[in-house]
Amino acid sequence: VSKKWYIVDATNMRLGRLASTIAYYLRGKDSPMFTPSLDMGSYMIVVNSEKVGVTGRKRTDKLYRRHSGRPGGLKEETFDHLQKRIPERIVEHAVRGMLPKNRLGRAMFRKLKVFKGGDHPHGAQKPEPLPI
């Protein structure tokens, strides 16, 4: 299966809707030959990840947790703080949660490329805009 490259500009898009569309194309569900046990999806490039938005009070109330593996190593930060610090992680976290939780899902996730600004190093692949 030849895999396409798509590019998405995340400016003023809602996080959940954007992530579900990206996960749909990463899994390959847009293909008429979709097979759940095979990696048939496309490559996705997301630019301007720092401009993705959420509705309601999620900007201050939504928490992202990580654990160092040591006792007492749980750290939490809000959506707003993480967006200022590492905006790529927000989109990656949302999309990863919508993919299968196995070897196949990890292989699909590796085809997602998220960038902070409007530039990306994948111009040679000639990505086309995602039909949203």
From TrEMBL:
Q: Does the keyword rRNA processing apply?
A: no
Q: Which lineage do the record's taxonomy fields give for this organism?
A: Eukaryota, Viridiplantae, Streptophyta, Embryophyta, Tracheophyta
Protein name as annotated: Large ribosomal subunit protein uL13c
| One Pfam family recorded for the sequence | Ribosomal_L13
Which UniProt keywords are listed?
Ribonucleoprotein, Ribosomal protein
Q: Which GO terms describe its biological process?
A: negative regulation of translation; translation
**Recorded GO CC terms:** cytosolic large ribosomal subunit; ribosome
Q: Which InterPro entries match?
A: Ribosomal_uL13, Ribosomal_uL13_bac-type, Ribosomal_uL13_CS, Ribosomal_uL13_sf
Q: Write down the NCBIfam families for this protein, in alphabetical order.
A: rplM_bact
Which PANTHER family does the record cross-reference, listed alphabetically? LARGE RIBOSOMAL SUBUNIT PROTEIN UL13M, RIBOSOMAL PROTEIN L13
Superkingdom field:
Eukaryota
CDD domains listed in its UniProt record: Ribosomal_L13
What are the recorded GO MF terms, alphabetically?
Answer: mRNA binding; structural constituent of ribosome
Q: Which family does it belong to?
A: Belongs to the universal ribosomal protein uL13 family.
